[in-house]
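Bug #77: duplicate submission created two jobs. Keeping one. Sequence:
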Amino acid sequence: MHVHFWPGDYVVVAGLQAQVKSARLFASGEKLNFQQDKFRVRLTGLPAKAPDHPVTTIALECDSEPTQDNIFVRKEKQRDEV
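Kept job's structure:
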């Protein structure tokens, strides 16, 4: 995954259809913590500053070929007060 604009200490990927087995910063190999539910993967513990410029790569190891379906998220995820 490529991060063009560094988000702070976490980043979220919505609609990933594969189960993530591990996550790490590609340049340094530093492991990242993550939580995954059926709608998103949240990567936490990112460094305060982007480790690469202009784009940081995060390597996600998945149990199958990763595909993304944001339409699934829009249709299935409950919206609070909408």
